[in-house]
Amino acid sequence: MGKTKNRVHLPVIVHNPYLGGLKEDILYHLSLGTGTHNLPALFGDVKFVCVGGSARRMKEFIEHIAAELGIQDPKSNYPNICAGTDRYAMYKVGPVLSVSHGIGIPSISIMLHELIKLLHHARCTDVTIIRIGTSGGIGLEPGTVVVTKQSVDAKLVPKFEQLILGELVVRDTDLDYGLAEELLRSSKELGQFNTVMGNTMCTLDFYEGQGRLDGAFCLYTEEDKHKYLTKAREAGVCNIEMESAAFAAMCKLSGLRAAVVCTTLVDRLKGDQLNISHDVLHSYQQRPQILVGYYIKKQIKAREAIPK
Amino acid sequence: MGKTKNRVHLPVIVHNPYLGGLKEDILYHLSLGTGTHNLPALFGDVKFVCVGGSARRMKEFIEHIAAELGIQDPKSNYPNICAGTDRYAMYKVGPVLSVSHGIGIPSISIMLHELIKLLHHARCTDVTIIRIGTSGGIGLEPGTVVVTKQSVDAKLVPKFEQLILGELVVRDTDLDYGLAEELLRSSKELGQFNTVMGNTMCTLDFYEGQGRLDGAFCLYTEEDKHKYLTKAREAGVCNIEMESAAFAAMCKLSGLRAAVVCTTLVDRLKGDQLNISHDVLHSYQQRPQILVGYYIKKQIKAREAIPK
What we know:
The structure is a homodimer.
Chain A: E1 26-27, E2 32-33, H1 39-43, E3 48-52, H2 55-68, E4 90-93, E5 96-100, H3 105-121, E6 128-137, E7 145-152, E8 159-164, E9 167-172, H4 177-190, E10 195-202, H5 222-234, E11 237-241, H6 244-253, E12 257-267, H7 278-304
Parallel strand pairs in A: 3-5, 3-6, 6-12, 7-10, 10-11
Antiparallel strand pairs in A: 1-2, 4-5, 6-11, 7-12, 8-9
Binding site for phosphate (chains A, B): 87, 131-134
Catalytic activity (chains A, B): uridine + phosphate = alpha-D-ribose 1-phosphate + uracil
EC number (chains A, B): 2.4.2.3
Protein backbone atom coordinates (compact mmCIF):
# COMPACT_ATOMS: atom_id res chain seq x y z
CA MET A 1 0.00 0.00 0.00
CA GLY A 2 1.52 3.39 -0.94
CA LYS A 3 2.05 5.91 1.83
CA THR A 4 2.63 9.60 1.22
CA LYS A 5 4.40 11.78 3.78
CA ASN A 6 1.54 14.22 4.18
CA ARG A 7 -1.36 11.80 4.25
CA VAL A 8 -3.17 11.53 7.57
CA HIS A 9 -3.82 7.91 8.46
CA LEU A 10 -7.15 7.28 10.15
CA PRO A 11 -7.10 4.79 13.02
CA VAL A 12 -9.93 2.48 14.11
CA ILE A 13 -11.38 4.06 17.23
CA VAL A 14 -12.65 2.31 20.33
CA HIS A 15 -14.52 4.29 22.99
CA ASN A 16 -13.78 2.34 26.14
CA PRO A 17 -11.47 3.53 28.94
CA TYR A 18 -11.49 0.04 30.50
CA LEU A 19 -10.02 -1.73 27.47
CA GLY A 20 -6.45 -0.56 28.11
CA GLY A 21 -6.58 -2.04 31.63
CA LEU A 22 -7.25 -5.61 30.46
CA LYS A 23 -4.30 -8.01 30.86
CA GLU A 24 -5.47 -9.68 27.70
CA ASP A 25 -8.51 -9.12 25.51
CA ILE A 26 -10.29 -12.34 24.59
CA LEU A 27 -12.38 -11.90 21.42
CA TYR A 28 -14.50 -14.83 22.55
CA HIS A 29 -16.93 -15.16 19.63
CA LEU A 30 -14.09 -14.95 17.08
CA SER A 31 -11.89 -17.40 19.01
CA LEU A 32 -9.01 -14.88 18.86
CA GLY A 33 -7.29 -12.76 21.51
CA THR A 34 -4.38 -10.45 22.34
CA GLY A 35 -2.86 -13.08 24.66
CA THR A 36 -2.97 -15.89 22.11
CA HIS A 37 -2.52 -14.16 18.74
CA ASN A 38 -0.16 -11.52 17.35
CA LEU A 39 -2.95 -9.36 15.98
CA PRO A 40 -0.74 -6.63 14.40
CA ALA A 41 1.24 -9.32 12.52
CA LEU A 42 -1.88 -11.19 11.44
CA PHE A 43 -4.15 -8.26 10.58
CA GLY A 44 -2.05 -5.03 10.51
CA ASP A 45 -2.23 -4.77 6.70
CA VAL A 46 -6.03 -4.96 6.46
CA LYS A 47 -7.53 -2.08 4.44
CA PHE A 48 -10.87 -3.56 3.32
CA VAL A 49 -13.33 -5.57 5.39
CA CYS A 50 -16.38 -7.18 3.80
CA VAL A 51 -19.08 -8.62 6.00
CA GLY A 52 -22.17 -10.66 5.18
CA GLY A 53 -24.65 -12.97 6.90
CA SER A 54 -23.67 -16.38 5.55
CA ALA A 55 -20.32 -18.06 6.24
CA ARG A 56 -20.46 -19.90 2.92
CA ARG A 57 -20.98 -16.67 1.01
CA MET A 58 -18.09 -14.95 2.80
CA LYS A 59 -15.79 -17.84 1.85
CA GLU A 60 -17.01 -17.51 -1.74
CA PHE A 61 -16.19 -13.81 -1.57
CA ILE A 62 -12.59 -14.36 -0.45
CA GLU A 63 -12.09 -16.77 -3.38
CA HIS A 64 -13.58 -14.19 -5.73
CA ILE A 65 -11.45 -11.31 -4.44
CA ALA A 66 -8.27 -13.43 -4.52
CA ALA A 67 -8.90 -14.17 -8.21
CA GLU A 68 -9.83 -10.54 -8.87
CA LEU A 69 -6.60 -9.25 -7.30
CA GLY A 70 -4.54 -11.97 -9.00
CA ILE A 71 -3.16 -13.15 -5.66
CA GLN A 72 -4.97 -16.46 -5.35
CA ASP A 73 -2.99 -19.44 -4.27
CA PRO A 74 -4.29 -22.49 -6.15
CA LYS A 75 -3.04 -24.71 -3.32
CA SER A 76 -4.79 -22.74 -0.62
CA ASN A 77 -8.33 -23.46 0.45
CA TYR A 78 -8.48 -20.20 2.47
CA PRO A 79 -8.66 -21.55 6.02
CA ASN A 80 -11.28 -20.13 8.37
CA ILE A 81 -9.36 -17.89 10.81
CA CYS A 82 -12.15 -18.36 13.40
CA ALA A 83 -12.19 -22.17 13.11
CA GLY A 84 -12.18 -22.44 16.92
CA THR A 85 -15.83 -21.34 16.99
CA ASP A 86 -18.88 -21.90 14.81
CA ARG A 87 -20.43 -18.53 15.65
CA TYR A 88 -18.66 -16.56 12.88
CA ALA A 89 -16.24 -17.33 10.04
CA MET A 90 -13.33 -15.15 8.87
CA TYR A 91 -11.08 -15.31 5.78
CA LYS A 92 -8.21 -13.10 4.62
CA VAL A 93 -6.33 -12.54 1.40
CA GLY A 94 -3.85 -9.65 1.06
CA PRO A 95 -5.42 -6.49 2.53
CA VAL A 96 -8.97 -7.89 2.38
CA LEU A 97 -10.78 -9.48 5.31
CA SER A 98 -14.10 -11.33 4.81
CA VAL A 99 -16.22 -12.00 7.91
CA SER A 100 -19.67 -13.55 8.40
CA HIS A 101 -22.09 -11.99 10.88
CA GLY A 102 -25.15 -14.26 11.05
CA ILE A 103 -28.71 -12.90 10.94
CA GLY A 104 -29.92 -9.73 12.64
CA ILE A 105 -28.71 -6.79 14.71
CA PRO A 106 -27.74 -8.71 17.89
CA SER A 107 -25.64 -11.15 15.87
CA ILE A 108 -23.83 -8.50 13.79
CA SER A 109 -23.29 -6.29 16.85
CA ILE A 110 -21.30 -8.98 18.71
CA MET A 111 -19.15 -9.56 15.64
CA LEU A 112 -18.59 -5.82 15.11
CA HIS A 113 -17.63 -5.17 18.76
CA GLU A 114 -14.96 -7.86 18.46
CA LEU A 115 -13.92 -6.91 14.90
CA ILE A 116 -13.49 -3.23 15.84
CA LYS A 117 -11.35 -4.27 18.83
CA LEU A 118 -9.37 -6.60 16.56
CA LEU A 119 -8.66 -3.82 14.02
CA HIS A 120 -7.78 -1.47 16.90
CA HIS A 121 -5.40 -3.97 18.56
CA ALA A 122 -3.86 -4.70 15.14
CA ARG A 123 -3.27 -0.92 14.67
CA CYS A 124 -5.00 -0.91 11.28
CA THR A 125 -5.52 2.44 9.53
CA ASP A 126 -7.68 3.77 6.69
CA VAL A 127 -10.06 0.83 6.78
CA THR A 128 -13.10 0.68 4.49
CA ILE A 129 -15.86 -1.72 5.52
CA ILE A 130 -18.70 -2.89 3.29
CA ARG A 131 -21.66 -5.11 4.14
CA ILE A 132 -22.56 -7.29 1.15
CA GLY A 133 -25.95 -8.87 1.73
CA THR A 134 -29.36 -9.95 0.56
CA SER A 135 -32.63 -8.08 1.01
CA GLY A 136 -36.22 -7.78 -0.10
CA GLY A 137 -36.77 -5.01 -2.66
CA ILE A 138 -39.69 -2.58 -2.85
CA GLY A 139 -40.79 -1.89 -6.42
CA LEU A 140 -37.52 -3.16 -7.91
CA GLU A 141 -36.89 -5.98 -10.35
CA PRO A 142 -35.40 -8.92 -8.34
CA GLY A 143 -31.63 -8.95 -8.77
CA THR A 144 -31.37 -5.16 -8.58
CA VAL A 145 -28.49 -4.13 -6.29
CA VAL A 146 -29.14 -1.37 -3.73
CA VAL A 147 -26.36 0.82 -2.32
CA THR A 148 -27.73 2.24 0.92
CA LYS A 149 -28.06 6.01 1.23
CA GLN A 150 -29.45 5.93 4.73
CA SER A 151 -30.56 3.12 7.04
CA VAL A 152 -33.99 3.69 8.59
CA ASP A 153 -35.86 1.68 11.21
CA ALA A 154 -39.33 0.08 10.94
CA LYS A 155 -40.87 3.47 11.80
CA LEU A 156 -38.87 5.00 8.90
CA VAL A 157 -36.63 6.98 11.29
CA PRO A 158 -32.91 7.13 10.36
CA LYS A 159 -31.76 6.18 13.87
CA PHE A 160 -30.57 3.12 15.75
CA GLU A 161 -32.25 2.67 19.14
CA GLN A 162 -30.51 0.57 21.79
CA LEU A 163 -31.16 -0.21 25.44
CA ILE A 164 -27.96 0.36 27.43
CA LEU A 165 -28.25 -0.36 31.16
CA GLY A 166 -32.01 -0.37 30.57
CA GLU A 167 -32.00 3.20 29.18
CA LEU A 168 -32.79 4.17 25.58
CA VAL A 169 -29.74 5.36 23.63
CA VAL A 170 -30.27 6.66 20.09
CA ARG A 171 -27.42 6.68 17.56
CA ASP A 172 -27.06 8.00 14.00
CA THR A 173 -27.12 5.58 11.08
CA ASP A 174 -25.11 7.70 8.63
CA LEU A 175 -22.99 5.83 6.14
CA ASP A 176 -20.16 7.25 4.00
CA TYR A 177 -21.96 9.03 1.18
CA GLY A 178 -18.80 9.44 -0.90
CA LEU A 179 -18.15 5.72 -0.74
CA ALA A 180 -21.76 4.97 -1.74
CA GLU A 181 -21.38 7.25 -4.77
CA GLU A 182 -18.09 5.60 -5.76
CA LEU A 183 -19.78 2.18 -5.57
CA LEU A 184 -22.66 3.38 -7.73
CA ARG A 185 -20.13 4.74 -10.26
CA SER A 186 -18.26 1.43 -10.20
CA SER A 187 -21.46 -0.45 -11.03
CA LYS A 188 -22.01 1.81 -14.04
CA GLU A 189 -18.45 1.10 -15.23
CA LEU A 190 -19.03 -2.64 -14.79
CA GLY A 191 -22.34 -2.53 -16.68
CA GLN A 192 -23.36 -6.06 -15.63
CA PHE A 193 -26.54 -5.40 -13.59
CA ASN A 194 -28.75 -2.60 -12.42
CA THR A 195 -27.67 -0.79 -9.22
CA VAL A 196 -29.58 2.00 -7.49
CA MET A 197 -28.99 4.17 -4.43
CA GLY A 198 -31.79 4.43 -1.85
CA ASN A 199 -32.79 4.09 1.74
CA THR A 200 -32.71 0.69 3.42
CA MET A 201 -35.15 -0.34 6.11
CA CYS A 202 -33.64 -2.40 8.92
CA THR A 203 -36.01 -4.63 10.95
CA LEU A 204 -35.71 -7.03 13.88
CA ASP A 205 -37.83 -9.71 12.21
CA PHE A 206 -38.16 -11.20 8.73
CA TYR A 207 -41.86 -12.19 8.82
CA GLU A 208 -44.19 -9.97 10.89
CA GLY A 209 -41.47 -7.28 11.18
CA GLN A 210 -41.40 -6.89 7.38
CA GLY A 211 -45.15 -7.30 6.84
CA ARG A 212 -44.91 -10.75 5.24
CA LEU A 213 -48.09 -12.79 4.75
CA ASP A 214 -46.33 -16.18 4.99
CA GLY A 215 -45.05 -16.42 8.58
CA ALA A 216 -46.44 -18.62 11.35
CA PHE A 217 -48.35 -15.56 12.57
CA CYS A 218 -50.00 -12.83 10.48
CA LEU A 219 -52.58 -10.75 12.35
CA TYR A 220 -52.85 -7.99 9.71
CA THR A 221 -54.34 -8.00 6.20
CA GLU A 222 -52.77 -7.93 2.74
CA GLU A 223 -54.10 -4.38 2.43
CA ASP A 224 -52.32 -3.32 5.67
CA LYS A 225 -49.11 -4.80 4.29
CA HIS A 226 -49.39 -2.90 1.01
CA LYS A 227 -50.16 0.37 2.79
CA TYR A 228 -47.05 -0.07 4.95
CA LEU A 229 -44.71 -0.97 2.08
CA THR A 230 -46.10 1.85 -0.08
CA LYS A 231 -45.49 4.33 2.76
CA ALA A 232 -41.91 3.01 3.04
CA ARG A 233 -41.39 3.33 -0.71
CA GLU A 234 -42.67 6.92 -0.63
CA ALA A 235 -40.06 7.62 2.09
CA GLY A 236 -37.33 6.50 -0.33
CA VAL A 237 -36.95 2.93 0.96
CA CYS A 238 -35.69 0.65 -1.81
CA ASN A 239 -35.05 -2.49 0.22
CA ILE A 240 -35.44 -4.18 3.61
CA GLU A 241 -32.83 -6.17 5.53
CA MET A 242 -31.89 -6.86 9.16
CA GLU A 243 -28.42 -5.50 9.99
CA SER A 244 -27.73 -2.10 8.41
CA ALA A 245 -28.76 0.11 11.37
CA ALA A 246 -26.33 -1.43 13.89
CA PHE A 247 -23.66 -1.70 11.17
CA ALA A 248 -23.97 2.00 10.25
CA ALA A 249 -24.11 3.21 13.87
CA MET A 250 -21.14 1.14 15.08
CA CYS A 251 -18.93 1.86 12.06
CA LYS A 252 -19.62 5.59 12.43
CA LEU A 253 -18.65 5.51 16.12
CA SER A 254 -15.38 3.75 15.33
CA GLY A 255 -14.45 6.00 12.39
CA LEU A 256 -14.73 3.29 9.75
CA ARG A 257 -15.64 4.32 6.21
CA ALA A 258 -18.75 2.20 5.69
CA ALA A 259 -21.24 1.20 2.99
CA VAL A 260 -24.06 -1.33 2.58
CA VAL A 261 -24.54 -3.11 -0.76
CA CYS A 262 -27.43 -5.59 -0.93
CA THR A 263 -28.98 -7.50 -3.75
CA THR A 264 -32.79 -7.82 -3.82
CA LEU A 265 -34.20 -11.35 -4.04
CA VAL A 266 -37.92 -10.54 -4.35
CA ASP A 267 -40.14 -7.53 -5.07
CA ARG A 268 -42.14 -7.31 -1.85
CA LEU A 269 -44.93 -5.40 -3.63
CA LYS A 270 -45.51 -8.55 -5.68
CA GLY A 271 -44.82 -11.35 -3.20
CA ASP A 272 -43.17 -12.62 -0.05
CA GLN A 273 -41.79 -16.10 -0.70
CA LEU A 274 -38.34 -16.65 -2.16
CA ASN A 275 -39.32 -19.05 -4.92
CA ILE A 276 -36.73 -18.35 -7.61
CA SER A 277 -34.47 -21.21 -8.66
CA HIS A 278 -31.25 -21.94 -6.78
CA ASP A 279 -29.10 -20.90 -9.76
CA VAL A 280 -30.84 -17.54 -10.25
CA LEU A 281 -30.72 -16.91 -6.49
CA HIS A 282 -27.00 -17.66 -6.47
CA SER A 283 -26.32 -15.34 -9.40
CA TYR A 284 -28.22 -12.52 -7.63
CA GLN A 285 -26.26 -13.14 -4.42
CA GLN A 286 -22.99 -12.84 -6.35
CA ARG A 287 -23.75 -9.31 -7.60
CA PRO A 288 -22.66 -7.40 -4.46
CA GLN A 289 -19.50 -9.55 -4.43
CA ILE A 290 -18.76 -8.70 -8.06
CA LEU A 291 -19.39 -4.98 -7.52
CA VAL A 292 -17.36 -4.72 -4.31
CA GLY A 293 -14.59 -6.89 -5.76
CA TYR A 294 -14.32 -4.54 -8.74
CA TYR A 295 -14.29 -1.47 -6.46
CA ILE A 296 -11.58 -2.89 -4.17
CA LYS A 297 -9.38 -3.84 -7.14
CA LYS A 298 -9.72 -0.31 -8.54
CA GLN A 299 -8.83 1.24 -5.17
CA ILE A 300 -5.76 -0.93 -4.67
CA LYS A 301 -4.51 -0.14 -8.18
CA ALA A 302 -5.04 3.60 -7.60
CA ARG A 303 -3.13 3.50 -4.31
CA GLU A 304 -0.28 1.52 -5.86
CA ALA A 305 -0.01 4.28 -8.48
CA ILE A 306 0.74 6.90 -5.78
CA PRO A 307 4.56 7.46 -5.58
CA LYS A 308 5.97 6.09 -2.32
CA MET B 1 -45.57 -43.28 21.68
CA GLY B 2 -48.64 -44.57 23.57
CA LYS B 3 -52.03 -43.06 22.77
CA THR B 4 -55.00 -43.35 25.08
CA LYS B 5 -58.54 -43.04 23.79
CA ASN B 6 -59.50 -40.14 26.03
CA ARG B 7 -56.34 -38.07 25.77
CA VAL B 8 -56.70 -34.74 23.94
CA HIS B 9 -53.83 -34.21 21.53
CA LEU B 10 -52.63 -30.63 21.30
CA PRO B 11 -51.77 -29.39 17.79
CA VAL B 12 -49.14 -26.80 16.86
CA ILE B 13 -51.08 -23.64 16.09
CA VAL B 14 -50.36 -21.09 13.37
CA HIS B 15 -52.24 -17.79 13.33
CA ASN B 16 -52.23 -16.91 9.66
CA PRO B 17 -55.31 -17.03 7.40
CA TYR B 18 -53.08 -16.61 4.30
CA LEU B 19 -51.06 -19.79 4.89
CA GLY B 20 -53.77 -22.15 3.65
CA GLY B 21 -53.92 -20.27 0.34
CA LEU B 22 -50.27 -20.90 -0.57
CA LYS B 23 -49.72 -23.40 -3.39
CA GLU B 24 -46.60 -24.48 -1.58
CA ASP B 25 -44.90 -23.14 1.54
CA ILE B 26 -41.16 -22.70 1.09
CA LEU B 27 -39.36 -22.73 4.47
CA TYR B 28 -36.53 -20.78 2.86
CA HIS B 29 -34.06 -20.51 5.76
CA LEU B 30 -34.41 -24.22 6.57
CA SER B 31 -34.13 -25.27 2.91
CA LEU B 32 -37.33 -27.33 3.27
CA GLY B 33 -40.85 -26.92 1.86
CA THR B 34 -44.26 -28.49 1.41
CA GLY B 35 -43.70 -28.78 -2.36
CA THR B 36 -40.34 -30.55 -2.08
CA HIS B 37 -40.59 -32.58 1.14
CA ASN B 38 -43.19 -34.91 2.68
CA LEU B 39 -43.21 -33.10 6.02
CA PRO B 40 -45.74 -35.41 7.80
CA ALA B 41 -43.62 -38.46 6.84
CA LEU B 42 -40.35 -36.79 7.82
CA PHE B 43 -41.42 -35.01 11.02
CA GLY B 44 -44.90 -36.29 12.05
CA ASP B 45 -43.52 -38.27 15.01
CA VAL B 46 -41.67 -35.34 16.61
CA LYS B 47 -42.58 -34.86 20.30
CA PHE B 48 -39.51 -32.99 21.61
CA VAL B 49 -37.67 -30.10 19.97
CA CYS B 50 -34.43 -28.76 21.45
CA VAL B 51 -33.00 -25.51 20.12
CA GLY B 52 -29.70 -23.74 20.81
CA GLY B 53 -27.47 -21.08 19.27
CA SER B 54 -24.58 -23.14 17.92
CA ALA B 55 -24.92 -25.72 15.12
CA ARG B 56 -22.01 -27.72 16.54
CA ARG B 57 -23.66 -27.94 19.95
CA MET B 58 -26.99 -29.03 18.47
CA LYS B 59 -25.23 -31.84 16.59
CA GLU B 60 -23.53 -32.84 19.85
CA PHE B 61 -26.96 -32.88 21.50
CA ILE B 62 -28.48 -35.26 18.94
CA GLU B 63 -25.55 -37.66 19.49
CA HIS B 64 -26.08 -37.40 23.24
CA ILE B 65 -29.85 -38.01 23.06
CA ALA B 66 -29.42 -40.93 20.65
CA ALA B 67 -27.08 -42.62 23.14
CA GLU B 68 -29.38 -41.72 26.04
CA LEU B 69 -32.42 -43.27 24.34
CA GLY B 70 -30.41 -46.29 23.20
CA ILE B 71 -31.38 -45.69 19.58
CA GLN B 72 -28.04 -44.55 18.22
CA ASP B 73 -26.88 -45.97 14.95
CA PRO B 74 -23.09 -46.45 15.10
CA LYS B 75 -22.94 -46.13 11.31
CA SER B 76 -24.89 -42.88 11.18
CA ASN B 77 -23.24 -39.51 11.44
CA TYR B 78 -26.62 -37.79 11.87
CA PRO B 79 -26.89 -35.81 8.62
CA ASN B 80 -27.89 -32.15 8.78
CA ILE B 81 -31.49 -32.03 7.53
CA CYS B 82 -30.98 -28.36 6.51
CA ALA B 83 -27.74 -29.02 4.59
CA GLY B 84 -29.06 -26.91 1.68
CA THR B 85 -28.45 -23.74 3.73
CA ASP B 86 -25.82 -22.59 6.22
CA ARG B 87 -28.26 -20.38 8.15
CA TYR B 88 -29.50 -23.11 10.51
CA ALA B 89 -28.74 -26.78 11.16
CA MET B 90 -31.26 -29.50 12.07
CA TYR B 91 -30.85 -33.08 13.28
CA LYS B 92 -33.38 -35.76 14.22
CA VAL B 93 -33.35 -39.02 16.10
CA GLY B 94 -36.59 -40.83 16.98
CA PRO B 95 -39.12 -38.29 18.35
CA VAL B 96 -36.42 -35.68 19.09
CA LEU B 97 -35.52 -32.79 16.80
CA SER B 98 -32.42 -30.62 17.45
CA VAL B 99 -32.23 -27.24 15.69
CA SER B 100 -29.70 -24.37 15.85
CA HIS B 101 -30.96 -20.78 15.92
CA GLY B 102 -27.90 -18.52 15.74
CA ILE B 103 -27.45 -15.51 18.03
CA GLY B 104 -30.19 -13.10 19.08
CA ILE B 105 -33.93 -12.52 18.77
CA PRO B 106 -34.06 -11.78 15.00
CA SER B 107 -32.14 -14.97 14.23
CA ILE B 108 -34.22 -17.24 16.49
CA SER B 109 -37.48 -15.63 15.33
CA ILE B 110 -36.89 -16.58 11.66
CA MET B 111 -36.07 -20.15 12.68
CA LEU B 112 -39.14 -20.37 14.95
CA HIS B 113 -41.55 -19.01 12.30
CA GLU B 114 -40.36 -21.73 9.92
CA LEU B 115 -40.14 -24.45 12.60
CA ILE B 116 -43.69 -23.74 13.83
CA LYS B 117 -44.95 -23.93 10.24
CA LEU B 118 -42.98 -27.17 9.75
CA LEU B 119 -44.53 -28.79 12.87
CA HIS B 120 -47.96 -27.54 11.76
CA HIS B 121 -47.60 -28.88 8.21
CA ALA B 122 -46.28 -32.19 9.64
CA ARG B 123 -49.42 -32.39 11.86
CA CYS B 124 -47.33 -32.90 15.01
CA THR B 125 -49.15 -32.98 18.36
CA ASP B 126 -48.18 -32.64 22.04
CA VAL B 127 -44.81 -31.08 21.27
CA THR B 128 -42.48 -29.91 24.06
CA ILE B 129 -39.78 -27.41 23.05
CA ILE B 130 -36.74 -26.54 25.17
CA ARG B 131 -34.03 -23.96 24.49
CA ILE B 132 -30.67 -25.24 25.77
CA GLY B 133 -28.21 -22.36 25.81
CA THR B 134 -25.42 -20.41 27.44
CA SER B 135 -25.74 -17.24 29.48
CA GLY B 136 -24.02 -14.89 31.91
CA GLY B 137 -25.02 -15.50 35.53
CA ILE B 138 -25.69 -12.89 38.20
CA GLY B 139 -24.35 -13.91 41.61
CA LEU B 140 -24.11 -17.59 40.66
CA GLU B 141 -21.09 -19.90 40.57
CA PRO B 142 -20.14 -20.39 36.87
CA GLY B 143 -21.53 -23.70 35.65
CA THR B 144 -24.80 -23.27 37.54
CA VAL B 145 -27.77 -24.17 35.32
CA VAL B 146 -30.77 -21.79 35.28
CA VAL B 147 -34.29 -22.95 34.38
CA THR B 148 -36.16 -19.79 33.41
CA LYS B 149 -39.22 -18.84 35.46
CA GLN B 150 -39.97 -15.72 33.42
CA SER B 151 -38.14 -13.93 30.62
CA VAL B 152 -37.77 -10.18 31.22
CA ASP B 153 -36.41 -7.46 28.94
CA ALA B 154 -33.52 -5.02 29.62
CA LYS B 155 -35.98 -2.80 31.53
CA LEU B 156 -36.91 -5.85 33.68
CA VAL B 157 -40.42 -6.02 32.20
CA PRO B 158 -41.75 -9.56 31.44
CA LYS B 159 -42.86 -8.64 27.91
CA PHE B 160 -41.61 -8.99 24.34
CA GLU B 161 -41.90 -5.78 22.33
CA GLN B 162 -41.98 -5.98 18.52
CA LEU B 163 -42.55 -3.52 15.70
CA ILE B 164 -45.17 -4.93 13.31
CA LEU B 165 -45.96 -2.68 10.31
CA GLY B 166 -44.13 0.03 12.25
CA GLU B 167 -46.48 -0.24 15.28
CA LEU B 168 -45.48 -1.50 18.73
CA VAL B 169 -46.96 -4.90 19.58
CA VAL B 170 -46.37 -6.29 23.09
CA ARG B 171 -46.57 -10.03 23.78
CA ASP B 172 -46.38 -12.14 26.95
CA THR B 173 -43.21 -14.09 27.71
CA ASP B 174 -44.80 -16.80 29.87
CA LEU B 175 -43.18 -20.20 29.76
CA ASP B 176 -44.67 -23.50 30.97
CA TYR B 177 -44.21 -23.38 34.74
CA GLY B 178 -45.06 -27.05 35.20
CA LEU B 179 -42.36 -28.03 32.70
CA ALA B 180 -39.83 -25.77 34.46
CA GLU B 181 -40.63 -27.47 37.79
CA GLU B 182 -40.27 -30.93 36.23
CA LEU B 183 -36.86 -29.94 34.84
CA LEU B 184 -35.75 -28.66 38.25
CA ARG B 185 -36.91 -31.94 39.83
CA SER B 186 -35.03 -33.90 37.14
CA SER B 187 -31.83 -32.04 37.97
CA LYS B 188 -32.22 -32.97 41.65
CA GLU B 189 -32.65 -36.63 40.67
CA LEU B 190 -29.57 -36.44 38.47
CA GLY B 191 -27.51 -34.81 41.22
CA GLN B 192 -24.62 -33.89 38.89
CA PHE B 193 -24.62 -30.06 39.07
CA ASN B 194 -26.46 -27.19 40.70
CA THR B 195 -29.67 -26.03 38.98
CA VAL B 196 -31.82 -23.09 40.08
CA MET B 197 -35.06 -21.52 38.87
CA GLY B 198 -35.11 -17.77 38.28
CA ASN B 199 -35.86 -14.96 35.89
CA THR B 200 -33.80 -14.57 32.72
CA MET B 201 -33.02 -11.20 31.19
CA CYS B 202 -33.10 -11.15 27.39
CA THR B 203 -31.11 -8.39 25.62
CA LEU B 204 -30.46 -7.31 22.04
CA ASP B 205 -26.71 -6.89 22.57
CA PHE B 206 -23.97 -8.82 24.38
CA TYR B 207 -21.65 -5.91 25.24
CA GLU B 208 -23.30 -2.53 25.93
CA GLY B 209 -26.74 -4.18 26.15
CA GLN B 210 -25.57 -6.33 29.08
CA GLY B 211 -23.44 -3.65 30.75
CA ARG B 212 -20.10 -5.24 29.86
CA LEU B 213 -16.89 -3.21 30.34
CA ASP B 214 -14.98 -4.99 27.54
CA GLY B 215 -16.77 -4.03 24.30
CA ALA B 216 -15.49 -1.66 21.62
CA PHE B 217 -17.67 1.02 23.24
CA CYS B 218 -18.35 1.56 26.94
CA LEU B 219 -19.71 5.00 27.79
CA TYR B 220 -20.77 4.13 31.38
CA THR B 221 -18.74 3.35 34.51
CA GLU B 222 -18.06 0.15 36.40
CA GLU B 223 -20.28 1.54 39.18
CA ASP B 224 -23.18 2.08 36.70
CA LYS B 225 -22.78 -1.53 35.57
CA HIS B 226 -22.89 -2.88 39.13
CA LYS B 227 -25.94 -0.78 40.01
CA TYR B 228 -27.75 -2.16 36.96
CA LEU B 229 -26.86 -5.80 37.57
CA THR B 230 -27.69 -5.48 41.28
CA LYS B 231 -31.10 -4.04 40.41
CA ALA B 232 -31.65 -6.96 38.02
CA ARG B 233 -30.65 -9.47 40.70
CA GLU B 234 -33.06 -7.87 43.16
CA ALA B 235 -35.80 -8.35 40.55
CA GLY B 236 -35.06 -12.09 40.58
CA VAL B 237 -32.84 -12.17 37.47
CA CYS B 238 -30.42 -15.10 37.67
CA ASN B 239 -28.95 -14.93 34.18
CA ILE B 240 -28.77 -12.93 30.94
CA GLU B 241 -29.03 -14.25 27.38
CA MET B 242 -30.32 -13.07 24.01
CA GLU B 243 -33.21 -15.23 22.76
CA SER B 244 -35.64 -16.20 25.57
CA ALA B 245 -38.18 -13.36 25.08
CA ALA B 246 -38.96 -14.14 21.44
CA PHE B 247 -38.78 -17.88 22.15
CA ALA B 248 -41.29 -17.63 25.03
CA ALA B 249 -43.67 -15.29 23.15
CA MET B 250 -43.71 -17.31 19.92
CA CYS B 251 -44.03 -20.72 21.62
CA LYS B 252 -46.91 -19.43 23.74
CA LEU B 253 -48.74 -18.15 20.63
CA SER B 254 -48.37 -21.51 18.89
CA GLY B 255 -49.40 -23.58 21.90
CA LEU B 256 -46.03 -25.25 22.39
CA ARG B 257 -45.06 -26.35 25.90
CA ALA B 258 -41.82 -24.42 26.32
CA ALA B 259 -38.87 -24.06 28.71
CA VAL B 260 -35.47 -22.35 28.70
CA VAL B 261 -32.48 -24.10 30.30
CA CYS B 262 -29.18 -22.21 30.19
CA THR B 263 -25.82 -22.80 31.78
CA THR B 264 -23.96 -19.78 33.18
CA LEU B 265 -20.40 -19.28 31.91
CA VAL B 266 -19.34 -16.32 34.08
CA ASP B 267 -20.59 -14.50 37.19
CA ARG B 268 -21.21 -11.01 35.80
CA LEU B 269 -20.88 -9.47 39.29
CA LYS B 270 -17.23 -10.61 39.22
CA GLY B 271 -16.24 -10.16 35.57
CA ASP B 272 -17.18 -9.90 31.91
CA GLN B 273 -14.66 -11.89 29.87
CA LEU B 274 -15.08 -15.60 29.23
CA ASN B 275 -11.60 -16.69 30.27
CA ILE B 276 -12.20 -20.22 31.55
CA SER B 277 -10.41 -23.07 29.80
CA HIS B 278 -11.92 -24.73 26.73
CA ASP B 279 -12.47 -28.00 28.62
CA VAL B 280 -14.27 -26.40 31.57
CA LEU B 281 -16.36 -24.29 29.15
CA HIS B 282 -17.31 -27.39 27.21
CA SER B 283 -18.31 -29.28 30.37
CA TYR B 284 -20.51 -26.33 31.45
CA GLN B 285 -22.12 -26.21 27.99
CA GLN B 286 -22.97 -29.92 28.24
CA ARG B 287 -25.01 -29.50 31.43
CA PRO B 288 -28.30 -28.34 29.81
CA GLN B 289 -27.89 -31.20 27.30
CA ILE B 290 -27.44 -33.73 30.11
CA LEU B 291 -30.42 -32.38 32.06
CA VAL B 292 -32.77 -32.17 29.07
CA GLY B 293 -31.59 -35.56 27.77
CA TYR B 294 -32.41 -37.12 31.15
CA TYR B 295 -35.83 -35.43 31.22
CA ILE B 296 -36.76 -36.55 27.68
CA LYS B 297 -35.71 -40.14 28.38
CA LYS B 298 -37.87 -40.15 31.53
CA GLN B 299 -40.87 -38.76 29.61
CA ILE B 300 -40.59 -41.28 26.79
CA LYS B 301 -40.35 -44.17 29.27
CA ALA B 302 -43.40 -42.89 31.17
CA ARG B 303 -45.43 -42.59 27.93
CA GLU B 304 -44.41 -46.09 26.81
CA ALA B 305 -45.71 -47.40 30.15
CA ILE B 306 -49.25 -46.13 29.35
CA PRO B 307 -51.34 -49.05 28.05
CA LYS B 308 -52.18 -48.60 24.37
